[in-house]
């Protein structure tokens, strides 16, 4: 990003970011905040995994990239579905459901939610056994 800024102001970034891929928190988000760069995240619901509608028996259509993705098949997918279920049952956010893309009113309620450091630690513990979800794998398509 620093090299790119030599050619002019960097206005926005679109990094992949969700509970199963938080690596941008260490360097990218602080850099963006420091330099007043907007962040429009890609895949905030982990490509549907955090939408609350996926189940281990789901079959994706052949033309859906997830049908060939290691993120959405086999043990990786099952482990992450278990983490989503633990998040749902955690009680960390009473009255706040996991996001549903078709119901923005429910999702928007999360904007008023304030999590303590203990809550964030509980979320980290729930996700400790999860596997990062990288998103589309063009080489496998």
What topology emerges from the helices and strands here?
Blueprint: H1 2-5, E1 12-13, H2 28-34, E2 38-39, H3 74-89, H4 104-108, H5 117-127
Parallel strand pairs: 1-2
**Gyration radius, to the nearest Å?**
17 Å
Strand order of the largest sheet: 1-2
Number of structurally distinct domains: 2
Helical content class: 25-40%
Termini gap = 29 Å
Q: Proportion of β residues?
A: under 5%
Shape designation: globular
Mean pLDDT: 83
Mind describing the biggest β-sheet?
2 strands, parallel
H/E element order: HEHEHHH
Structural class: mainly alpha
How many extended strands?
A: 2
pLDDT < 50 stretches? none
Helical region count? 5
Describe the fold and architecture.
α2 (28-34) links the parallel β1 and β2 (38-39). 30% of the residues lie in helices and 3% in strands. The protein is globular and about 50 Å long. The model has no long low-confidence stretch (mean pLDDT 83). It is built from 5 helices and 2 strands. The protein has a two-stranded parallel ribbon. The protein has helices spanning 2-5, 28-34, 74-89, 104-108, 117-127, and strands at 12-13, 38-39. It is mainly α and 141 residues long. The protein has 2 domains: 1-44, no CATH class; 47-134, no CATH class.
């Amino acid at each position: 990003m620093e090299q790119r800024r030599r050619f002019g102001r960097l206005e926005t970034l679109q990094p992949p970011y969700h509970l199963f891929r938080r690596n941008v928190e260490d360097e990218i988000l602080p850099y963006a905040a420091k330099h007043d760069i907007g962040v429009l995240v890609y895949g905030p619901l982990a490509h549907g995994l955090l939408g609350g509608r996926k189940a281990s028996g789901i079959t994706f259509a052949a033309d859906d990239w997830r049908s060939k993705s290691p993120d959405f098949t086999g043990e990786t997918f099952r482990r992450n579905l278990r983490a989503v279920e633990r998040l749902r049952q955690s009680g960390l956010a009473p009255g706040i459901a996991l996001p549903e893309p078709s119901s923005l009113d429910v999702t928007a309620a999360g904007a008023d939610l304030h999590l303590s450091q203990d809550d964030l630690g509980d979320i980290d513990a729930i996700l400790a056994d999860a596997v990062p979800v990288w998103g589309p794998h063009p080489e496998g398509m």
